[in-house]
Each structure stands twice: as C-alpha cells, then as structure tokens.
Fold Monooxygenase FAD-binding protein.
Amino acid sequence: MVGSGPAGLTFARVLHRHGHPVTLLERDPSPDARPPGGTLDLHEGLGQRALDKAGLLAGFHALARPEGQALRILDPDGTVLRDWRPHPDDQAHPEIDRGQLRDLLLGPLGVRWGRGVTGVVPGTRDGVLVRFADGREETFDLVVGADGAWSRVRPAVSPVTPHYTGVTFVETSLDDIDTRHPDLARLIGDGSVGVYGVNRGLVAQRNSGGHVKVYAQFRAPLDRHPDPAGVEAVRSGLLALFAGWAEPVLGLLRHGTAFVHRPSTSCPCATPGRTSPG
Ligand SMILES: Cc1cc2nc3c(=O)[nH]c(=O)nc-3n(C[C@H](O)[C@H](O)[C@H](O)COP(=O)(O)OP(=O)(O)OC[C@H]3O[C@@H](n4cnc5c(N)ncnc54)[C@H](O)[C@@H]3O)c2cc1C
C-alpha cells in the first residue's frame, strides 16, 4: 500500500482484519510530521461503511462529534439564511478530527515512514517493482496506490493527471475559540458556518478542543501564491478580497494565526464506456 491517508489506512485495516499481511509505505517521516488537517465528516453507507468493514465503526462513534453536523449559512452581509442543528441521535455524517481518525486506523498496522515512492513498474519477473526517493527498489506481489491526488502509482495504470480547478483555498486556524473569541464561536456554532458571495466563500469548521479551521475560497490564477508574502500581507490581501463583508465574518480572517495556500485540483472522471489502460 502506498500512502497512509484515510484511504490507504482503511483498506490496510480491512486486509489486516482478514489476515492478509500489508506493507504500508508512507512518504511522511512520522505520523506527526505535519498537521493532520481539518475535520472530516463520514457518511452512513459511505465512510462509515468502510470503517465497519475494518471493524472500527464503534471506535469511530466513540470519537466522532454528531453535534459537528450543525450547519449555518450566512449572506456576506451577515444575514443568517440557515441555522440547522442535528438531533442528538443523528449519526448521518458525524465529524471526526483527521488526527483521531488516523490514530484509530493505525492501531496495529506497521507503517514504513519516510518511504517516498517515485514510481512503480508492474509486470517485472519478481512482481511489481517499487522505486523509492532514496534510490532503493523493492518488489511486491501487489501494489495499491493510495498516495493521493499527485499519486506516483497512478501513472503505471492511467495517463490521467490532476488539473487546477481555478479555485484556491487559503486555510487559516483559530485556537481555543470559546475562550478567546466567544463571538466567533457563536458565529460558527457547534459545526460549520459557510458564508457565500459571488465567486468567493468563507467556511469555518469546528474541530475538537476549540480548534477551528477557516477556508477562504476564491477564483485565482494558479501562480497566485500568497504564502511567501508573510502572514500579515496574506491577511491584508484576503481582507481586501472580502471587503464589504460583515465585520463578524471578517473576524475569521482577522484572528487567523497562519495561512496555507491550497489550490484545488481534480482528476477527470472516467469517460463512460472507456476503461483505463491499466
Ligand atoms: C478542505 C477539505 C475538506 C474535506 N472534507 C472532507 C469531509 O468532510 N469528508 C470527506 O470524506 N472528505 C473530505 N475531504 C476529502 C478528503 O480529504 C480526501 O478525500 C481524502 O483525504 C483522500 O484520502 P486519501 O487517503 O486518498 O489521500 P490523502 O489524504 O491525500 O493521503 C495520501 C497519503 O499518501 C502519502 N503520499 C503521497 N505521495 C506519496 C508518495 N509518493 N510516496 C509515499 N506516500 C505518499 C501522503 O503523505 C498521504 O499520507 C476534504 C478535502 C478538503 C481539501
């Protein structure tokens, strides 16, 4: 298995549960090498079904936040268009922190950390050849590519490459929101708030422990990369982009601690009736 994101770990746990040995190859040097990212909602019949197959559904429900399904939608002027709160028993798509999900999935699995894969060659005499960034090579009887959007495994079976959608996210975070920013805590509620204007949006999602991730979303050329400009320059740029929006909403940007640029990419869907070359 190449990649220990949610997909690779879940599949590895399903195989492990059925007694199949799995080797997990992950580029990150350790589980905590980088922040695990924002909250994930897992839907009944989809993500929850996969966790059930891995024998981890009860573990998921013990950690998940059903109240995190709450959703508020506002106009840029601050008018509340929707304020939906789930019933306490609603398990349709509870939220879980990615780090908690990763730790749940890791369980007994052994991961070979710091093993970035550069490519695979199927059909060699000894099986599938895996090439590593450090120059080493190793063969396996089967390789599953779970290494995300920019997969180094996919080129062995498909010519498809991701393309930029034209939409960029800039992510920022707020900590200890209930104590430090009670006004913003009320704006967000127990789950998420989305504020949508023309060609731009601001979404804030509550994670556990009073941590909030904020995503400013807008159309921009791919080369518009605000990170090197520094925190205050990015903040000013975003405040200019969202100028005129309600002041409580702009508070999400005013109090963000650091900004990370995340251009949104997607892979083309399979053409109907056409199978991939692999
Ligand atoms: C803002 C945002 C919000 C989202 N919210 C939700 C949500 O609420 N619910 C939901 O279901 N989905 C959500 N998604 C989508 C979800 O994040 C992805 O579907 C999911 O992360 C994909 O998992 P993955 O394991 O396929 O890939 P990834 O999460 O990308 O993991 C890939 C793994 O492979 C490793 N890797 C990469 N390249 C190599 C290499 N060459 N060699 C070795 N290892 C490598 C990476 O380090 C990583 O650990 C959201 C996405 C975004 C951007």
Remarks:
- Helices lie at 6-17, 47-53, 57-63, 98-106, 177-180, 182-188, 231-241, 247-254.
- The radius of gyration is 21 Å.
- The chain has two domains: 1-72+87-160, 163-266.
- The pocket of flavin-adenine dinucleotide is lined by residues 2-8, 25-28, 38, 40-41, 47, 116-117, 146-148, 152, 215 (CB under 6 Å).
